[in-house]
TrEMBL record:
<dbReference type="GO" id="GO:0008378">
    <property type="term" value="F:galactosyltransferase activity"/>
</dbReference>
<dbReference type="InterPro" id="IPR040911">
    <property type="entry name" value="Exostosin_GT47"/>
</dbReference>
<dbReference type="GO" id="GO:0009969">
    <property type="term" value="P:xyloglucan biosynthetic process"/>
</dbReference>
<feature type="region of interest" description="Disordered">
    <location>
        <begin position="495"/>
        <end position="538"/>
    </location>
</feature>
<protein>
    <recommendedName>
        <fullName>Exostosin GT47 domain-containing protein</fullName>
    </recommendedName>
</protein>
<feature type="region of interest" description="Disordered">
    <location>
        <begin position="1"/>
        <end position="21"/>
    </location>
</feature>
<dbReference type="InterPro" id="IPR004263">
    <property type="entry name" value="Exostosin"/>
</dbReference>
<feature type="domain" description="Exostosin GT47">
    <location>
        <begin position="87"/>
        <end position="424"/>
    </location>
</feature>
<dbReference type="Pfam" id="PF03016">
    <property type="entry name" value="Exostosin_GT47"/>
</dbReference>
<keyword id="KW-0808">Transferase</keyword>
<keyword id="KW-0735">Signal-anchor</keyword>
<feature type="compositionally biased region" description="Polar residues">
    <location>
        <begin position="511"/>
        <end position="538"/>
    </location>
</feature>
<feature type="compositionally biased region" description="Pro residues">
    <location>
        <begin position="8"/>
        <end position="17"/>
    </location>
</feature>
<keyword id="KW-0812">Transmembrane</keyword>
<keyword id="KW-0333">Golgi apparatus</keyword>
<dbReference type="GO" id="GO:0000139">
    <property type="term" value="C:Golgi membrane"/>
</dbReference>
<comment type="similarity">
    <text>Belongs to the glycosyltransferase 47 family.</text>
</comment>
Length: 538
């Protein structure tokens, strides 16, 4: 999928009414015109009444107001004993300006088109079953699990899930972790390309949020070390240095964010408070059985193309590495390589095109985008293709809680790494390297990728996937709770009172949750005694 979109040259042109292109054969009589005018006015009046009544009904895209629902289990624990052994999560009921108002104002979030369709169904977007482009790409049984999801919807998706999470508590005194549901990405995104947007506009909501947060007892008690937040855009959109007219907001660098754990679709590997989590893809399975059905499907496919690439050529970038890959693809021929041009919003408007490409290829090329990461990495893996990487920060140094990358041997189990410098000078070619793998080796890598699918997708069910299978949110919450538990132990050993001194940087590697690298049970257990995602296709 494409990276952070760049400003299109022109907004979409409204369709021209066919009435403007037709010429009347003859002028109707005056009496007919009068009767027609009366009928037209009556029809318009009825339409106005009808649409006004629709506005009184809540839209399915809007999240329930946290203060009006009770999703906690009796006594704060789910029915399964020990499922919340690591502690409960408190979700702040923020003033609506920080989340709900942004949803309500979805028509104004983007300068070129309405963002409302991408916020439907709690951030998943429109159902694939309602979009003809998906009908020939996914099997009918899996179609209900697919949506046309925008890559920047992490904040909405996580908030929706945590509101009904079995380990949520409405009593802050019982919480081990505090979630701050500020839609920072949606907010700053609405000010990045506006003609009149200023740095003050980009910083305003973050400053107000932190002012509000510092007045909360739970935050004052800990200084924020047991708080976490999601960032629906890459971390660099929140790291503007100084007050100049640079890119993005200063939110991550503001006073009050020093100790807050940040779950972002791309983090700064040098900042231990940043934790990279998967980009949302279009696959949101309802239950473990849906995941297994999809895994069986992608493993059974006959992939006729060796490798593929989805992305946009960038003429404005001198010596862009994508040009090298596009040339490699062209030289290989269509029987060995296929590509999808994601210029503008082609791929965000039509996620089926990228899915179809990767379902038919054995490998997928993953160069860096505007930053080191791309959603395309996860689209590729969900489709069962093996990613070909060119920078370690694209995956290995980013998603440590999700992707096996503790050693070069583990990396080679599910991916291929090529030195971009060697490709540039022509010492190696993509086709030659990939054709050097035996069919058995390619199959083993595909099976390893498919085995990892549950951990990199966000379930649509409020209860997660079940059946002992963990999804991306389970992994994130497990990691957050482990991190906070370790901090409490360290402070107890050092007899340090929370909140008085900013904690020294944490070692994010030593506080990883149970992952694909480990067979240990996660802190948050599930209905099944089995807690791993080992591939089961029986």
């Amino acid at each position: 999928m494409p990276e952070s979109p760049t400003s299109p040259a022109n907004p979409p042109t409204p369709p021209v009414s066919p009435l403007n292109n037709a010429a009347a054969a003859a002028s109707p009589p005056v009496s007919a015109l009068l009767r027609g005018s009366v009928l037209l006015l009556a029809f318009l009046a009825l339409q106005l009444v009808f649409f006004s009544s629709l506005l009184s009904f809540p839209s399915p895209r809007f999240l329930p107001t946290p203060g009006n629902i009770n999703t906690t289990w009796p006594n704060g624990l789910p029915a399964e004993a020990g499922a919340c052994g690591a502690g409960l999560v408190y979700v702040y009921d923020l003033p609506p300006e920080f989340n709900h108002d942004l949803i309500d104002d979805c028509r104004s979030l983007w300068p070129w088109y309405s963002f409302c369709p991408y916020l439907d169904h709690g951030g998943f977007g429109q159902r694939a079953a309602t979009l003809p482009v998906f009908l020939d790409v996914t099997p009918n049984a899996s179609l209900p699990n697919w949506y046309n999801t925008d890559q920047f919807q992490l904040e909405v998706i996580v908030h929706r899930r945590l509101l009904s999470h079995p380990c949520r508590t409405t009593d802050p005194a019982r919480a081990a972790a505090f979630y701050v549901p500020f839609y920072a990405g949606l907010d700053v995104g609405s000010h990045l390309w506006g003609d009149n947007a200023t740095v003050a506009d980009r910083d305003r909501a973050g400053l107000r949020l932190l002012r509000w947060l510092r007045n909360q007892t739970s935050f004052r008690n800990s200084g924020g070390w047991d708080h976490f937040i999601t960032l629906g855009r890459i971390t660099w959109d929140f790291r503007r240095h100084g007050d100049d007219d640079g890119w993005g907001t200063r939110f991550v660098l503001m006073h009050g964010m020093e100790n807050v754990t940040r779950l972002a679709i791309e983090g700064d590997p040098t900042d231990p408070m940043d934790v990279a989590v998967p980009y949302p893809t279009g696959f949101h399975p309802r239950a473990a059985r849906d995941v297994r059905a999809w895994q069986r499907h992608v493993l059974a496919l006959r992939r006729r193309t060796l490798f593929g690439f989805a992305g946009a050529p960038r003429a404005g970038f001198r010596d862009d590495f994508r040009d090298v890959l596009l040339e490699e693809c062209e030289d290989a021929g269509r029987d060995r390589c296929r590509s999808v041009d994601c210029t503008g919003t082609r791929c965000t408007d039509n996620g089926a095109a990228v899915l179809q490409l990767f379902l038919g290829t054995k490998f997928c090329l993953q160069p860096r985008g505007d930053s080191f990461t791309r959603r395309s990495l996860f689209d590729c893996m969900v489709a069962g293709a093996v990613p070909v990487l060119f920078w370690r920060q694209t995956a290995y140094d980013q998603y440590r809680w999700y992707l096996p990358a503790r050693s070069r041997g583990e990396e080679r189990e599910w991916s291929v790494f090529m030195d971009p410098r060697e490709l540039r000078v022509g010492n190696v070619s993509v086709q030659e390297v990939l054709e050097g793998f035996s069919e058995q080796r390619v199959r083993r890598m595909q099976e390893r990728v498919v085995e990892m699918i549950p951990r990199i997708v966000y379930a649509s069910s409020p209860d997660g996937l079940g059946g002992g299978m963990v999804d991306a949110l389970d992994v994130a919450l497990d990691g957050v709770l482990r991190r906070f538990r370790e901090r409490r132990r360290r402070m107890a050993r050092e007899e340090r009172l929370p909140g008085h001194v900013v904690d020294p940087p944490v070692d994010s590697k030593s506080m990883e949750p149970s992952s694909a690298n480990s067979s240990s049970k996660p802190v948050l257990s599930h209905a099944s005694a089995s807690t791993n995602n080992r591939l089961k296709i029986s």
